[in-house]
Every structure is written in C-alpha cells, then in structure tokens.
Write a structure and sequence with these properties.
The chain is mainly α. It has helices spanning 17-30, 34-61. α1 packs across α2.
Length: 72
C-alpha cells in the first residue's frame, strides 16, 4: 500500500481580534477567502525576505565594490 502526502501543511495562528477583523475585511475586499489571503501575505513576505537575503549575499561577496543600500 502506498501513501500520498499533501505538499501543503497546516499552520495554526493566534491572531488578536482587531487584527483578525482587519484581515477578514481585507480578504473580503480583494474577493478571496481569509485563508487564501493570509497564505498570499505569507508567500509575498517570504519572497521579499529571500530577495533581501540574496541582495545582502551579493553585496558581501563583492568586497571591492562600493556598497550603497537604498531602502524603500
């Protein structure tokens, strides 16, 4: 017998009531479910974090180049 494992994992988050209400409102305004909205926010945050880390790696690997960091 073979078992199939889902690529998705479940995560439980504790969110205070005001933030939960805000997230519900934002999800409703964008026309997606709350879980999908939170998943999208987390995915975007991880993508941006990975981009930030890659930028720092590139800056640190080029020791002779002048370093300028522009923050948005």
């Amino acid at each position: 017998m073979t078992a199939a494992f889902s690529a998705q994992k479940k995560l439980s988050l504790k969110i205070d009531a005001p933030l939960y209400s805000f997230l519900e409102k934002q999800a409703d305004e964008t026309g997606v479910g709350l879980n999908d909205f939170i998943e999208q926010l987390l995915t975007n945050a991880m993508d941006e974090w990975c981009e930030y880390c890659e930028t720092l790696r590139r800056l640190s690997s080029d020791e002779d180049a002048a370093k300028h960091i522009c923050l948005k």
